[in-house]
Automatic annotation (TrEMBL), chain A:
Annotated localization: Cytoplasm; Nucleus
Xref: PANTHER family: ATP-DEPENDENT PROTEASE SUBUNIT HSLV, METALLOPROTEASE TLDD
Pfam families per UniProt: Proteasome
Reactions the enzyme catalyzes: Cleavage of peptide bonds with very broad specificity
Alphabetized CDD domains for the sequence: proteasome_beta_type_6
Function of the molecule: Component of the proteasome, a multicatalytic proteinase complex which is characterized by its ability to cleave peptides with Arg, Phe, Tyr, Leu, and Glu adjacent to the leaving group at neutral or slightly basic pH. The proteasome has an ATP-dependent proteolytic activity.
Keywords: Cytoplasm, Hydrolase, Nucleus, Protease, Proteasome, Threonine protease, Zymogen
Protein name (Swiss-Prot/TrEMBL): Proteasome subunit beta
Entry's Gene Ontology molecular function annotations: threonine-type endopeptidase activity
One Gene Ontology CC term in the entry: proteasome core complex, beta-subunit complex
Automatic annotation (TrEMBL), chain B:
Protein name: Proteasome subunit alpha type
Subunit structure: The 26S proteasome consists of a 20S proteasome core and two 19S regulatory subunits.
Family listed: Belongs to the peptidase T1A family.
Coiled-coil positions: 239-266
InterPro entries: Ntn_hydrolases_N, Proteasome_alpha, Proteasome_alpha-type, Proteasome_asu_N, Proteasome_bsu_CS, Proteasome_sua/b
PROSITE patterns listed in its UniProt record: PROTEASOME_ALPHA_1, PROTEASOME_ALPHA_2, PROTEASOME_BETA_1
Entry-linked Gene3D superfamilies: Glutamine Phosphoribosylpyrophosphate, subunit 1, domain 1
GO annotations of cellular component type: cytoplasm; nucleus; proteasome core complex, alpha-subunit complex
Length: 240, 266
């Protein structure tokens, strides 16, 4: 995995009023004017019989919060979901494409599509259009072959299978927390609790994450969607 | 044939008044006169077998004019009929398999591969400017997703079915009768189904039983398998395994003939 380092060049003189940098943080200054970003905290954990996906709900345009209760967890197929981060427009379009392809595949093969296939489709779209996209996606779900699984697809269009994954601007604040608290073979309850705890910590430190916590638990039996409202978060001052 | 001269047999885009498409029937005729191709689904894999007639005494027969082709690591096809038509089908099958892997990141399931080959073959029966394929295709494939193996056959008309055992070419009728005696159909048989080692021997026996040295051209046996033993990869059956199967088959046939002679004397 590599990161492109587009450093500002030395001859840039800053005019605080007209500058494109004005009022923008490092996370949001690459956005086009008026582009919505899900400056975000997202994560997913695979547990014994399925997977839990979790996300905050803030959508911002620079410093302005465009939506404080959005849903960044999207359904790709009956038992396959994904967490979106980056440009809201790009990730919505991507999930639409993957949902379409998965639907077609399910009809052609007559069986339940694998999470691996969903992740592969997402990766292909992300990789082949990497110059025009700003999307970091975590694909998670359940299939009869592998059970619960999580795939992380970061900015460049890599795709890796992981026991858990975190993403979005807020994820940088919780790497240590999740690394130390995660353990192999968690129960559903433990996984959900860790997700809520970690995401609430990220939301309290990351300016572009906040609002409520949304979760989606996927098992062979189906999906359960829940949320934790902003004044009941496990961590952080209430009412942000 | 009654259809000749009526004008309804000139194009596959025209039905005859009694609802037939003669060009497709003629294409099937081309397969019926070609070398016998057999496929058996066993307990632990699939065996494909083709009788390749040696059209010339100086032919380097091991490497040229192959009738069995690998499509991708987990699937292979046996072709009989117009060999060159068959190669066109193989090329398409390979494209479909590679394209599926590229798009979805997993191996193409057997039913999907077969249905895509079928669609391709069928397309050539629709257009006035095209000629149907004069070849039948036996598809052996393994599905890593479901961990199951299956055998399909695509005919010149574009129809395809899944089989426990199937045959095409000159000896298809008698071969089918012989295959029905083998333990390959889980719905009929009691006891265990045969394995690929046994199937190689039985297929060799069927081919040699049908062969009449005085009438038929000399031939070479081409065999491949896709089984547990090959790591579910489509591979040629080793030369020595084929040779000993053929030896066994010839002895079996000889013994059966001797018994028949004895009975006649009594």
């Amino acid at each position: 995995m590599s990161y492109s380092t587009a450093l500002p060049t030395h001859h840039q003189t800053h005019n605080p009023l007209t500058d494109a940098y004005h009022g923008k943080s490092a996370e949001t200054r690459h956005l086009k004017p008026n582009e919505l970003s899900t400056g975000t905290t997202i994560m997913a954990i695979a547990f014994s019989s399925g997977v839990v996906l979790c996300a905050d709900s803030r959508v911002s345009t620079g410093t302005y919060i465009a939506n404080r209760a959005s849903d960044k967890i999207s359904q790709l197929h009956d038992h396959i979901w994904c967490c979106r981060s980056g440009s809201a427009a790009d990730t919505q379009a991507l999930t639409d494409y993957v949902r379409h392809y998965l639907g077609q595949l399910a009809v052609e093969t007559g069986r339940v599509p694998e999470v691996k296939v969903a992740a592969h489709l997402m990766r292909r779209l992300c990789y082949e259009n990497k110059d025009n996209l700003m999307a970091g996606v975590i694909v998670g779900g359940w299939d009869p072959v592998e059970g619960g699984s999580v795939y992380n697809i970061p900015l460049g269009g890599a795709c890796m299978s992981m026991p858990f994954a975190i993403g979005g601007s807020g994820s940088t604040y919780i790497y240590g927390l999740v690394d130390s608290e995660f353990k192999e073979g968690m129960t559903k309850e433990e996984a959900v609790a860790l997700c809520k705890k970690a995401v609430s910590h990220a939301m309290s430190r990351d300016g572009s994450s906040g609002g409520i916590i949304r979760t989606c638990v996927v098992t062979g039996d189906g999906c359960e969607r829940e949320y934790v409202s902003g004044n009941r978060l496990p961590y952080g001052p209430a009412g942000w | 044939m009654a259809s000749s001269g009526s004008g309804y047999d000139l194009s596959s885009s025209t039905f005859s008044p009694d609802g037939r498409i003669f060009q497709i029937e003629y294409a099937s005729k081309a397969v019926e006169n070609a070398g016998t191709a057999l496929g058996l689904r066993c307990r632990d894999g699939i065996v494909l077998c083709v009788e390749k007639p040696l059209v010339h005494k100086m032919l380097v027969s091991e490497t040229t004019g192959r009738r069995i082709h690998t499509v991708d690591s987990h699937s292979g096809v046996a072709i009989t009929g117009f060999v060159s038509d068959g190669r066109q089908i193989v090329g398409r099958a390979r494209d479909e398999a590679a394209n599926y892997l590229e798009t979805y990141g997993t191996t193409i399931p057997p039913e999907v591969l077969t249905s895509r080959i079928s669609s391709y073959v069928h397309y050539f029966t629709l257009h006035g400017a095209l000629r149907p394929f004069g070849a039948s295709t036996l598809v052996a494939a393994y599905d890593p997703g479901t961990k199951e193996h299956s055998l399909h056959m695509v005919e010149p008309s574009g129809v395809s079915y899944e089989y426990y055992g199937c045959s095409a070419g000159r000896g298809r009728q008698s071969a089918r009768t012989e295959m029905e005696k083998l333990a390959i159909n889980p719905k009929q048989g009691e006891g265990e189904l045969i394995d690929v080692q046994e199937a190689v021997k039985q297929l060799a026996k069927i081919i040699y039983t049908l062969y009449d040295e005085s009438k038929d051209k000399p031939f070479e046996l081409e065999m491949s398998w896709l089984c547990e033993g090959s790591g579910w990869r489509h591979e040629g059956v080793p030369k020595d395994v084929i040779a000993s199967a053929v030896e066994w088959a010839k002895k079996e046939i000889e013994e059966a003939e001797e018994e028949d002679d004895d009975e006649m004397e009594e």
